[in-house]
Amino acid sequence: xxxxxxxxLLFRDPYAGWIVSGFITTCLLAVYAWVIAFILGSIxxxxxxxxxxxxxxxxxxxxxxFRNIPLLAQIFLWYFVIPEFLxxxxxxxxxxxxxxxxFWTSVVGLGLYTAARxxxxxxxxxxxxxxxxxxxxxxxxxxxxxxxxxxxxxxGYRTVIPSLTNDFLGVFKNSSLALTIGVMELTATARQIDxxxxxxxxxxxxxxxxxxCVTLCVIMLMRFxxxxxxxxxxxxxxxxx
Length: 241
Description:
single chain, mainly alpha
């Protein structure tokens, strides 16, 4: 009842600068991690649809391992444990020579974790395509690589746009876990403002609004992309039929 509201602190130095810096760090962390997740996840997803049992097993092992270990535990492993097994020079670089090791460790951990989820979306998108389309492509003289490049992947990606949107938003929101190893992203800066000013409502309200704005922008962008790329007569996985 005695709480003293002070919304103006969000626009005063240094707190406004902290929020902007944390928001930029969060966006960069999410985008870099998504690049890793999308590229690696696409490769793993394709491996899981191949006829080769060894490659399919490799993809399955990756998905099951990275998807079933909590993200926080993976970030701790990448930051505290994995460097200890590297050669001395590489270990020294990772711990002391690499610029902003906490940030890049979070990028790698978040990217590899999300890649397992992307792989499942890509796999389901490819396997949702009728076998006749793949057979037709092969009958026309396409190689297996060309069949994936020109037929299966373009259609598969369009099918799973809603699911990939959820995965990207998951990357954006999960980036808050990076604060546990010292990354000053949006949630961490909100907590820092709270600790300096004891204005917890204002600090976390600002973070909430920024998270919500990015989420809404991404959803609207992906819905626009989904409408533009939709194949007539079909519906994207997760969308209305």
